[in-house]
Each structure stands twice: as structure tokens, then as C-alpha cells.
Amino acid sequence: MVYAYPLVTVIIPFRDESRYVVRCLDSILKQDYPPDKIEILIIDGISEDGTGPILEKYKKKDDRLKVIDNPKRVIPSALNLGIKEAKGCYIIRLDAHSEYPVNYISQSIECAQK
């Protein structure tokens, strides 16, 4: 059980992830953590495979998503950009190739609070 619901920033580095982006983002948007307490930062390494338009579509659907360009195209730079932009009390770094259980964020915060 989460004791309090602090703002959580989710950082996801993306680059040419069109095959995975929908499943990944859908699983994050279905989290049981309060929606108004999740900020989602997608750091895009200038994708060239159609990932960009998919991200834009999701951004229009849900204002919790923010897409940030990563011109250096490498994960360390993506993480630095995300951390600099993060507003949450906690930062959760996720991978684009994964789908997350509905309680992933709430369980992570519960563990951190213990």
C-alpha cells in the first residue's frame, strides 16, 4: 500500500522503437497509480522508423506525455535530458521494449517508501 502519492516522473529513452512503442505506452497509461501523479517523459533519439508520429499521436491523447528530442541519440544523454526536465519526487526509468504490469509504478513507490 502506497502511503502517499507523490508525483512520479517516468523517463523512457526511445529511438526507432515503432515496433514496441504502442505496447509500452499503453501499459504505462493503464497504471493503477493516480493519473494526475504521473509525468511521462519520452526522450526520442531522432527516430527514423515512424516512431515520431506515433509519439505525437499519444501526446495528443494524453497530456501527461512530453516528447523531448535527444540529438545525441544515446541513452546516457536521454537520461540526462529527462532528469533535467523531471518534476517528480521519484524518477522511474523504463525501457521502450517492455510492457509493464498495471501495478508497476505503485509497487515501485511502495517499496521506495518502505
Give a short synopsis of this structure.
The chain has four helices and four strands; from the N terminus they run βαβαβαβα. By secondary structure, it is of the alpha/beta class.
Largest sheet, strands/sense/barrel: 4 strands, parallel
Mean pLDDT: 94
Order of helices and strands: EHEHEHEH
The amount of beta strand, in percent, is 15-25%
Please tell me how large the radius of gyration is. Answer: 13 Å
What can you see in these coordinates?
The chain has helices at residues 21-29, 51-61, 75-85, 104-113, and strands at residues 8-14, 38-44, 65-69, 90-93. It is built from four helices and four strands; from the N terminus they run βαβαβαβα. The model has no long low-confidence stretch (mean pLDDT 94). It is an alpha/beta fold and 114 residues long. The protein has a four-stranded parallel beta sheet, sandwiched between helices.
Secondary-structure topology with pairs:
Blueprint: E1 8-14, H1 21-29, E2 38-44, H2 51-61, E3 65-69, H3 75-85, E4 90-93, H4 104-113
Parallel strand pairs: 1-2, 1-4, 2-3
Q: Which features characterize this protein?
A:
20% strand; 114 residues; alpha/beta; four-stranded parallel β-sheet; globular
